[in-house]
Amino acid sequence: MFKKEYPYLYETHMHTCESSACARSTGKEMAQAAKEAGYTGIIITDHSWYGNNCIDAGLGWEEWITQFAKGYENARKWGEQIGLDVFFGYESCYHGTEFLVYGVDKEWLLSHPQIKDASIKEQHQLIKTAGGMVIHAHPYREAGYIPEIRLFPEDVDGVEGINAAHSSSKSTGHHCPEFDSRAIAYARKQALPMTAGSDVHTSRLLGGGMAFKRKLHSIEDFCQAVLGGEEYLLTNGDTWFSKAGEPL
Questions:
Q1: Where are the alpha helices (DSSP H) in the chain?
Q2: Contact 230, 8 (CB under 8 A)
Q3: DSSP codes joined into one string, 192-208
Q4: Which residues fall within 8 angstroms of residue 203, CB to CB, at 6 or more apart?
Q5: CA 150, CA 96: separation in Å to the nearest integer?
Q6: Separation between Cα atoms, residue 159 and residue 149, nearest integer Å
């Protein structure tokens, strides 16, 4: 029923082994898997400079970003051949607290090296000025690499309310539905929009993401849809939710 009214499904949280040290599949493999799973599009969100990336830290900024974008570029190239939209994003890390950044691209990163050592507040200001958005990724996840739960409601544009790694029946890591329940409650309390993604690192997809009534044209279009109050659904691959996080 929901697929008929909201036929355009997008994965918003996906990693590739070209850039993320914890990933096991290439950008091309992730794109192919997403196409076969029925997605309209995907957003590659590889771990950036202070996250779990596999890029040589000794490289200069330009070469580092060039290498960092390979997973996205390989996914996009294959996506163009198979009819899958592939958009650019990334996941930033501040001592275990992570954010999904959307709406800027490789060229923007190349010309804004100050983003690397920006504070969380400065990150938000830079990305907002560029027309993008910052989403707090899995804000209540508990894991060895996260020393403490830290919340920054004034320095984000939204919250990842549904992370399929937490709540999908297919998940084999970080599985704890309570993490999503707490994220949804937090987003509601702060009146922040919610996103949903799977946080996948291999081509064994979980089926999570966001479904829209129309096809999105770009990553900027995605940002505008989320921030502009457009109707969409969230899913962990098993259950559908309203954009307010209510099970349907």
A1: 2-5, 27-36, 61-68, 70-82, 106-111, 120-129, 164-167, 177-190, 219-227
A2: no
A3: --EEEE--B-SSS----
A4: 25, 29, 30, 32, 33
A5: 9
A6: 14
Task: Tell me the two tokens of residue 3.
Answer: 């697929």
Tokens of 74: 């390989």
Q: Please tell me the pTM assigned to this model.
A: 0.97
The pLDDT, as a whole number, for residue 3 is 81
Mean of pLDDT values over 191-201: 98
What DSSP designation does 20 have? B
Amino acid identity for residue 123 in this structure: Q
Of 76, 70, 85, nearest in space to 10 by CA:
85
Cα–Cα distance, 206 to 84 (Å, whole number): 18
pLDDT single digits (tens) 108-118: 999 999 999 99
Query: How does pLDDT run across 130-155, given as a tens digit for each residue?
Result: 999 999 999 999 999 999 999 999 99
For the chain, the domains span 2-242
| CA 75 from centre of chain | 15
Q: Is 43 left (phi over 0), alpha (psi -120 to 50) or beta?
A: beta
CB-CB contact of 55 with 68 (8 Å) = yes
Using the structure block, give the residue that is written with the tokens 């409650």.
185
Contacts (Cβ under 8 Å, ≥6 apart) of 230: 212, 224
Residue 228: Cβ-neighbour burial (10 angstroms; 0-12, 13-18, 19+): exposed
Phi then psi dihedrals of residue 111, to 5 deg: -95, 0
Which two three-digit tokens encode residue 142?
A: 């508990």
Question: What CATH code would you report for 2-242?
Answer: 3.20.20.140
Query: Phi/psi at 116 (nearest 5 deg)?
Result: -60, -45
Whether the per-residue pLDDT at 2 is higher than 90: the answer is: no
